[in-house]
Amino acid sequence: MKRVLGIIGSPRKMGNCELTVKEIAARLPEASELSMVRLADKDIRPCKACYRCLMGDCPQVDDFGAVISAIVSADGVIVAAPVYLLGAHSSLQRFLDRGLQFWKHLDALAGKPAVGVALAGVRDGEGASLLGVENFMRGMGMEVKGRAVIHAALPGEVLLSEEGMAAAARLAGSLFAPGARQAPSPSCTRCGGTYFEFRGRDRVYCLLCGAGGTVAGEGEGVRIETVAPAHSWRGPDARKAHGEWLIGMKERYLRERDRLKEVSRPYAGGNFI
Ligand SMILES: Cc1cc2nc3c(=O)[nH]c(=O)nc-3n(C[C@H](O)[C@H](O)[C@H](O)COP(=O)(O)O)c2cc1C
């Protein structure tokens, strides 16, 4: 029996995100048990940037620990978030902001199968939301087995949507399917991501992994070639190395603290509302 965790990034009960998670779970080909977390309702406090979690425990006492434990225990994860102002609901990023703590669970999270959906109320209203959903899954080191944008506005409308039901069937079929997901084309040759910033005539920057590269026309299509970013924390080895780098940065800060305080002193104060 597969343990599946549905992560719902919407405050709306029985809204399209909750229904999508339940529909995908119901269509899974393997026997599974679904539990859910309504992330938008959880008390997830902001990261204080104290870096204490690198050596010890996070000083925030809230629901983060319970949610990360549920994710760690799951065999697979379904994420669904509504689009708010062209981005994924902030509950996803709020959780991700606490991500220095993911390093404590590197092995348990690495390669965990996940699928993600962004629910948009209007055609072309999805903006950068799917990037937010995919970044949420990849930020934890999960393997993204599928993703979709579904358009549905009123609560329940997703169940009447052909697009929604087709996406649910496809994502259910891919969550535990063996083999890596085929990267869509054109995509980042480092991470398979499909979100880019264009930097000049033929330069691109991958918004999912930070790789830079080139874009060129090839036959009827387009070819993107990216090279490894200067600093990466994607992939199991890079994540471990990044954790060690962060600990080194903390030590560097302690060494350089006096000098940094000295140069910052003239900037102290100001009017804050
Ligand atoms: C504050 C707010 C902002 C929204 N912004 C967008 C948007 O930018 N683009 C869009 O397509 N839909 C937008 N919507 C619509 C929701 O994404 C859509 O209704 C979705 O199905 C909600 O999912 P839920 O029922 O699980 O809450 C917005 C809804 C709210 C409440």
* Class inferred from helices and paired strands: alpha/beta
Q: Helicity range of the residues?
A: 25-40%
Beta-strand proportion? 15-25%
Tell me the radius of gyration.
Answer: 20 Å
Shape: globular
Under CATH, the topology of the largest domain can be stated as Rossmann fold
Low-confidence stretches: none
Helix/strand order: EHEHEEHHEHEHEEEEH
Q: Quote the distance from N terminus to C terminus.
A: 53 Å
Q: Looking at this structure, what is the CATH superfamily of the largest domain?
A: Flavodoxin domain
* Total separate domains: 2
Mean pLDDT value: 95
Which small-molecule ligands are present, each listed once? Answer: flavin mononucleotide
Provide a count of the helices: 7
The top-level CATH class of the largest domain is Alpha Beta
Largest sheet: 6 strands, mixed
Give me the CATH architecture of the largest domain, please. Answer: 3-Layer(aba) Sandwich
The total beta strand count reads 10
Describe the structure.
- This protein is an alpha/beta fold and 273 residues long.
- It folds into two domains: 174 residues, 3-Layer(aba) Sandwich (Rossmann fold), CATH 3.40.50.360; 30 residues.
- Helix content is 32%, strand content 23%.
- The chain has seven helices and ten strands.
- Strands 1, 2, 3, 4, 5 and 6 form a six-stranded mixed sheet that branches. Strands 7-8-9-10 form a four-stranded antiparallel sheet, with no helix packed on it.
- A hairpin with a 2-residue loop joins strand 9 and strand 10.
- Helix 1 crosses helix 6.
- The longest helix has 29 residues.
- It is globular and about 60 Å long.
- The N and C termini lie far apart (53 Å).
- The model has no long low-confidence stretch (mean pLDDT 95).
- The protein binds flavin mononucleotide.
- The site of flavin mononucleotide has 20 residues, from helix 1, strand 3 and strand 5.
